[in-house]
C-alpha cells in the first residue's frame, strides 16, 4: 500500500507568490529525492543546465521570460517581486529566479516511500501574507489532468475551465494551466496570453 504524500518539494522561495508546478524533476545532486524547499543560489541554474541538458535550460529561460514580461505589464507585481532593476530576462534569471527572496517557486510532484510521484495539492499552498496575492501555474494539460485524477483533495481544490486545448483557468483558486515551458510550446505570443490570464485573476 502506498503512503500518503509527505510534503511538497520546491525549488525557490518559501511561501512563494508565484508557484509553477511541473511534472518532472532535474536529475541533479539531491533534487530527484528532495521533499523540502530548496532555494537556489547564483550559478545553480547554469550548473543544472550543464548537467541536465537543454530541456531544463528551456524551463528556466521561459520561466524568467514569463516573469520579465509579466512584471513589465503589471506594476503591482513589479513592486512586489525582487529584481525590478534587471534590464533583461537573462539578468533576472541569473540573479533572482528561484532564489530565497525571489517570491518564485518551481514545485515538483511529491514522492511517497516507494519513490513514485504524487501530484501536489494546490489548495494547501499560500504565501503567508494575506495582503499579497499568490498565483499558481500548472505546466501542461497532461500534468494538470493527472493532478485532478490522482487526488480527491486536488479535485476539490480546482475547478478548471478549459479555454482551448492548451489553457485553462480557475479564478477562485488563482490557477492557470498553460503549455509546458518550452520555446515552441509556450512561445513569446503564448507568454503574452498567459500574462493576460494571470492578470485577469486580480480583476473583479
Overview of this protein structure:
By secondary structure, this protein is an alpha/beta fold. The protein has one domain (9-200). The protein contains 7 helices and 10 strands. It has helices spanning 44-52, 54-73, 75-80, 89-95, 141-150, 152-157, 188-200, and strands spanning 9-12, 18-21, 37-38, 104-108, 110-111, 117-118, 135-139, 161-162, 168-170, 175-178. The strands form 2 sheets. The protein has an 8-stranded mixed sheet, with helices on both faces. The longest helix has 20 residues, at 54-73. It starts with 8 loop residues before the first strand and ends with a helix. Mean pLDDT is 84; it is low at 1-7.
- Secondary-structure element order, as H and E? EEEHHHHEEEEHHEEEH
**Largest sheet descriptor:** 8 strands, mixed
Order of adjacent strands in the largest pleated sheet: 3-1-4-2-7-10-9-8
Unreliable sequence segments:
1-7
How many domains comprise the coordinates? 1
* Number of helices, where a helix is a run of at least 4 consecutive DSSP H or I residues: 7
Structural class per helix/strand content?
alpha/beta
Count of DSSP strands: 10
Kindly state the mean pLDDT as a whole number? 84
Portion in helices: 25-40%
Distance between the termini: 45 Å
Overall shape: globular
Bin the strand percentage. Answer: 15-25%
Radius of gyration of CA atoms, rounded to a whole number: 16 Å
Protein name: Restriction endonuclease
InterPro entries: DUF6942 (IPR054222)
TL;DR of this structure?
This protein is an alpha/beta fold and 204 residues long. Helix content is 35%, strand content 16%.
